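Task card 7
Instruction: Convert sequence to structure tokens.
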Amino acid sequence: MARSVVEVIADAKRLAVEYRLLTGKPLGISGEVAEIEVHRCLGLELAPARTAGHDAIRHLGEQSELVQVKGRAIDIAHPRKGRLPSINLAHPFDSVVLVLIDQATMNPYEIWEVRRDRVESLLTKPGSKARNERGALAISQFCAHALRVWRSVESEAAEEVKRARIEARLSKRSALRSDVSSTTVAFTPERRERWKQVTRDGPFNLWLNPQVTGADGSLDLERLYRVAREWGVNERYEHLNPGMIRMNIGNRLRAIVPVKVYERRNEA
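Output:
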């Protein structure tokens, strides 16, 4: 009794997985797997073998659409890495369907579809030899312009994990902003006065300020950089405004200059 194509493909999948484990190389059946999966998952009718320009047909009432099918085995940890097989614009078709196949199981992971006019626009856009001459789009580029028409349970789970990570990061940022806000509110006049005594008017700034202040009493950046160089700080922070430059270099110097240096200078 003859076996069905689906049964044969199932055996071929198992062999492809075993072959990759043994050799580290693909067996090269992604195209055939992709065609079977668009039939199984999307209900498309497969075109006869070696039909020019399309691999499947979508029936829409009395009308039909011609579909070019592409398959690519991917590492589901990086599903957008790699390129599609070449897309042939020489013959009629209405859309391109890409089946992303989990290389660990050879089962479909996601299926994406894009219309022909969009594909033509992407392939003829100047700038890439692989794209312009060989018709090979990057998976990420294809998916950016395509519609996902089917996804596996594994794809849904991966997106849920990604969403949870994003929410956790946003929650952490919100908590940090809340902490900063609370700290600002708690910065009472008493604490501000204490800050002025210990930090702004403290021994370190009393030592540094006369060395970096010009005759008019304003900050002289060249004098500031000169002091910094004397203590081995060579960064110039040109992208910052003068106040931020003073703060950054001041913090660097505060960590380097021994306390006894500016305490002795102030006493003198």
